[in-house]
Amino acid sequence: MTEVTIQAKDGGSFTGYLALPAGGKGPGMVVIQEIFGVNDVMRGLCDQYAAQGYVALCPDLFWRQEPGIQISDKTDAEWQKAFQLYQGFNEAKGVEDLIATLDFLRGHEAVTGKIGSVGYCLGGKLAYLMATRSDADANVSYYGVGIDGALGEATAIDKPLLMHMAGKDKFVPPEAQEKIKATLSDNPLVTIHAYPDQDHAFARTDGIHWDPEAAKAANERTAAFFSRYLKS
Fold it and tell me: Which residue intervals define the domain Dienelactone hydrolase in the entry (predicted)?
Protein backbone atom coordinates (compact mmCIF):
# COMPACT_ATOMS: atom_id res chain seq x y z
CA MET A 1 0.00 0.00 0.00
CA THR A 2 1.99 2.90 -1.33
CA GLU A 3 1.92 6.10 -3.38
CA VAL A 4 3.15 5.97 -6.97
CA THR A 5 3.75 8.62 -9.63
CA ILE A 6 2.08 8.35 -13.04
CA GLN A 7 3.14 10.30 -16.12
CA ALA A 8 0.35 12.24 -17.81
CA LYS A 9 0.04 11.98 -21.58
CA ASP A 10 0.17 15.75 -22.04
CA GLY A 11 3.08 16.38 -19.67
CA GLY A 12 3.35 16.58 -15.92
CA SER A 13 2.62 13.81 -13.48
CA PHE A 14 0.15 12.83 -10.79
CA THR A 15 0.05 10.41 -7.91
CA GLY A 16 -2.05 7.37 -7.10
CA TYR A 17 -2.63 4.99 -4.23
CA LEU A 18 -1.43 1.47 -5.07
CA ALA A 19 -2.47 -1.63 -3.13
CA LEU A 20 -0.88 -5.02 -3.84
CA PRO A 21 -2.42 -8.44 -3.24
CA ALA A 22 -0.94 -10.77 -0.65
CA GLY A 23 0.67 -12.87 -3.36
CA GLY A 24 2.43 -9.82 -4.78
CA LYS A 25 1.02 -10.23 -8.30
CA GLY A 26 -2.37 -10.31 -9.99
CA PRO A 27 -4.64 -8.72 -12.59
CA GLY A 28 -4.80 -4.93 -12.55
CA MET A 29 -7.61 -2.69 -11.35
CA VAL A 30 -8.01 1.05 -11.94
CA VAL A 31 -10.18 2.32 -9.07
CA ILE A 32 -11.83 5.62 -10.02
CA GLN A 33 -12.55 8.21 -7.34
CA GLU A 34 -15.74 9.95 -6.33
CA ILE A 35 -15.81 13.76 -6.07
CA PHE A 36 -13.98 13.63 -2.72
CA GLY A 37 -10.54 12.73 -4.05
CA VAL A 38 -8.35 9.77 -3.13
CA ASN A 39 -9.63 9.70 0.44
CA ASP A 40 -9.99 7.00 3.08
CA VAL A 41 -12.97 5.51 1.24
CA MET A 42 -11.09 5.11 -2.04
CA ARG A 43 -7.95 3.78 -0.38
CA GLY A 44 -10.12 1.32 1.52
CA LEU A 45 -11.66 0.15 -1.75
CA CYS A 46 -8.19 -0.37 -3.22
CA ASP A 47 -7.28 -2.46 -0.20
CA GLN A 48 -10.46 -4.51 -0.65
CA TYR A 49 -9.71 -5.19 -4.31
CA ALA A 50 -6.13 -6.09 -3.38
CA ALA A 51 -7.54 -8.58 -0.86
CA GLN A 52 -9.44 -10.13 -3.78
CA GLY A 53 -6.18 -10.61 -5.65
CA TYR A 54 -5.92 -7.46 -7.77
CA VAL A 55 -3.19 -4.85 -8.13
CA ALA A 56 -5.44 -1.87 -7.39
CA LEU A 57 -4.52 1.71 -8.23
CA CYS A 58 -6.59 4.84 -7.54
CA PRO A 59 -5.21 7.92 -9.35
CA ASP A 60 -5.65 11.52 -8.22
CA LEU A 61 -7.91 12.97 -10.92
CA PHE A 62 -8.12 16.43 -9.39
CA TRP A 63 -4.37 17.03 -9.61
CA ARG A 64 -4.79 19.60 -12.39
CA GLN A 65 -6.84 21.75 -9.97
CA GLU A 66 -5.45 20.86 -6.56
CA PRO A 67 -3.25 17.80 -5.99
CA GLY A 68 -3.79 15.54 -3.02
CA ILE A 69 -7.47 16.24 -2.30
CA GLN A 70 -8.75 14.01 0.50
CA ILE A 71 -12.10 15.15 1.85
CA SER A 72 -15.18 13.35 3.14
CA ASP A 73 -18.94 13.58 2.75
CA LYS A 74 -19.47 14.52 6.39
CA THR A 75 -19.75 18.33 6.34
CA ASP A 76 -21.41 20.99 4.20
CA ALA A 77 -18.06 22.70 3.66
CA GLU A 78 -16.57 19.51 2.26
CA TRP A 79 -19.55 19.00 -0.04
CA GLN A 80 -19.16 22.56 -1.34
CA LYS A 81 -15.47 21.93 -1.95
CA ALA A 82 -16.24 18.65 -3.71
CA PHE A 83 -18.81 20.24 -6.02
CA GLN A 84 -16.39 23.07 -6.80
CA LEU A 85 -13.78 20.53 -7.86
CA TYR A 86 -16.37 18.58 -9.83
CA GLN A 87 -17.47 21.70 -11.71
CA GLY A 88 -13.87 22.54 -12.55
CA PHE A 89 -13.02 19.00 -13.64
CA ASN A 90 -11.94 18.49 -17.25
CA GLU A 91 -13.62 15.19 -18.11
CA ALA A 92 -11.65 14.53 -21.30
CA LYS A 93 -8.35 15.09 -19.51
CA GLY A 94 -9.60 12.90 -16.67
CA VAL A 95 -10.18 10.00 -19.06
CA GLU A 96 -6.72 10.58 -20.53
CA ASP A 97 -5.30 10.34 -17.00
CA LEU A 98 -7.19 7.10 -16.44
CA ILE A 99 -5.79 5.67 -19.66
CA ALA A 100 -2.32 6.75 -18.50
CA THR A 101 -3.04 4.89 -15.25
CA LEU A 102 -4.09 1.84 -17.26
CA ASP A 103 -0.81 2.04 -19.19
CA PHE A 104 1.11 2.40 -15.91
CA LEU A 105 -0.45 -0.82 -14.65
CA ARG A 106 0.26 -2.63 -17.91
CA GLY A 107 3.93 -1.87 -17.37
CA HIS A 108 3.99 -2.69 -13.66
CA GLU A 109 5.91 -5.78 -12.62
CA ALA A 110 3.15 -6.90 -10.24
CA VAL A 111 0.44 -6.97 -12.91
CA THR A 112 -0.15 -10.29 -14.60
CA GLY A 113 -2.71 -10.43 -17.36
CA LYS A 114 -5.83 -8.37 -17.72
CA ILE A 115 -6.79 -4.97 -16.31
CA GLY A 116 -10.22 -3.56 -15.47
CA SER A 117 -11.68 -0.37 -14.08
CA VAL A 118 -14.29 0.35 -11.45
CA GLY A 119 -15.70 3.76 -10.60
CA TYR A 120 -18.13 5.37 -8.19
CA CYS A 121 -20.26 8.53 -8.64
CA LEU A 122 -18.07 10.75 -10.85
CA GLY A 123 -15.97 7.64 -11.28
CA GLY A 124 -19.08 5.74 -12.34
CA LYS A 125 -19.41 7.88 -15.45
CA LEU A 126 -15.67 7.70 -16.06
CA ALA A 127 -15.81 3.89 -15.87
CA TYR A 128 -18.47 4.03 -18.60
CA LEU A 129 -16.15 6.26 -20.64
CA MET A 130 -13.32 3.80 -20.06
CA ALA A 131 -15.59 1.23 -21.69
CA THR A 132 -16.05 3.50 -24.70
CA ARG A 133 -12.59 5.07 -25.00
CA SER A 134 -10.01 2.66 -23.59
CA ASP A 135 -8.89 -0.92 -24.07
CA ALA A 136 -9.58 -1.95 -20.45
CA ASP A 137 -10.68 -5.58 -20.36
CA ALA A 138 -13.78 -5.06 -18.19
CA ASN A 139 -15.41 -2.08 -16.49
CA VAL A 140 -17.85 -1.52 -13.63
CA SER A 141 -19.87 1.65 -13.02
CA TYR A 142 -21.50 2.39 -9.67
CA TYR A 143 -24.28 5.03 -9.91
CA GLY A 144 -22.52 7.07 -12.59
CA VAL A 145 -23.77 10.64 -12.98
CA GLY A 146 -24.23 12.09 -16.47
CA ILE A 147 -23.96 8.89 -18.51
CA ASP A 148 -27.18 9.77 -20.31
CA GLY A 149 -25.31 12.69 -21.90
CA ALA A 150 -22.61 10.41 -23.30
CA LEU A 151 -24.72 7.68 -24.87
CA GLY A 152 -23.55 8.71 -28.32
CA GLU A 153 -20.39 6.75 -27.50
CA ALA A 154 -22.24 3.56 -26.61
CA THR A 155 -21.52 1.86 -29.93
CA ALA A 156 -17.82 1.85 -29.04
CA ILE A 157 -18.33 -0.59 -26.14
CA ASP A 158 -16.60 -3.82 -27.10
CA LYS A 159 -15.63 -5.19 -23.68
CA PRO A 160 -17.87 -6.26 -20.78
CA LEU A 161 -19.49 -3.44 -18.79
CA LEU A 162 -21.42 -3.88 -15.55
CA MET A 163 -23.57 -1.02 -14.25
CA HIS A 164 -25.20 -0.51 -10.85
CA MET A 165 -28.03 2.04 -10.87
CA ALA A 166 -29.83 3.46 -7.83
CA GLY A 167 -33.55 3.81 -8.58
CA LYS A 168 -33.96 6.86 -6.35
CA ASP A 169 -30.68 8.49 -7.30
CA LYS A 170 -31.24 12.23 -6.86
CA PHE A 171 -28.45 12.96 -9.35
CA VAL A 172 -29.79 10.63 -12.08
CA PRO A 173 -33.51 11.20 -12.62
CA PRO A 174 -35.82 8.38 -13.80
CA GLU A 175 -35.94 9.66 -17.38
CA ALA A 176 -32.13 9.57 -17.56
CA GLN A 177 -32.07 6.04 -16.18
CA GLU A 178 -34.64 4.89 -18.73
CA LYS A 179 -32.66 6.47 -21.55
CA ILE A 180 -29.52 4.63 -20.42
CA LYS A 181 -31.34 1.30 -20.19
CA ALA A 182 -33.02 1.73 -23.56
CA THR A 183 -29.78 2.64 -25.31
CA LEU A 184 -27.62 -0.10 -23.80
CA SER A 185 -30.13 -2.95 -23.55
CA ASP A 186 -29.31 -4.37 -26.97
CA ASN A 187 -25.60 -4.71 -26.27
CA PRO A 188 -24.92 -8.23 -24.92
CA LEU A 189 -21.69 -6.97 -23.32
CA VAL A 190 -23.60 -4.62 -21.00
CA THR A 191 -25.29 -5.79 -17.80
CA ILE A 192 -27.37 -3.34 -15.77
CA HIS A 193 -28.52 -4.04 -12.23
CA ALA A 194 -31.12 -1.68 -10.80
CA TYR A 195 -31.65 -1.13 -7.08
CA PRO A 196 -35.13 0.45 -7.04
CA ASP A 197 -35.22 1.62 -3.43
CA GLN A 198 -31.66 2.95 -3.23
CA ASP A 199 -30.32 6.49 -3.45
CA HIS A 200 -27.01 7.70 -4.81
CA ALA A 201 -23.86 6.20 -3.25
CA PHE A 202 -25.68 3.37 -1.51
CA ALA A 203 -22.44 1.38 -1.53
CA ARG A 204 -20.31 4.05 0.16
CA THR A 205 -19.59 2.51 3.55
CA ASP A 206 -21.03 4.66 6.33
CA GLY A 207 -22.22 7.26 3.81
CA ILE A 208 -25.54 8.99 4.30
CA HIS A 209 -27.31 6.59 1.90
CA TRP A 210 -25.29 3.48 2.65
CA ASP A 211 -27.41 0.35 2.54
CA PRO A 212 -25.47 -2.72 3.71
CA GLU A 213 -27.69 -5.26 1.95
CA ALA A 214 -27.78 -3.46 -1.39
CA ALA A 215 -24.06 -2.73 -1.16
CA LYS A 216 -23.35 -6.39 -0.44
CA ALA A 217 -25.41 -7.48 -3.45
CA ALA A 218 -23.69 -4.99 -5.77
CA ASN A 219 -20.23 -5.81 -4.50
CA GLU A 220 -20.79 -9.55 -4.86
CA ARG A 221 -21.93 -9.03 -8.44
CA THR A 222 -18.86 -6.91 -9.11
CA ALA A 223 -16.55 -9.53 -7.60
CA ALA A 224 -18.08 -12.29 -9.74
CA PHE A 225 -17.90 -10.10 -12.85
CA PHE A 226 -14.22 -9.25 -12.44
CA SER A 227 -13.35 -12.83 -11.50
CA ARG A 228 -14.94 -13.99 -14.75
CA TYR A 229 -13.43 -11.40 -17.05
CA LEU A 230 -10.06 -10.58 -15.47
CA LYS A 231 -8.95 -13.83 -13.84
CA SER A 232 -9.89 -16.28 -16.57
Answer: 14-230
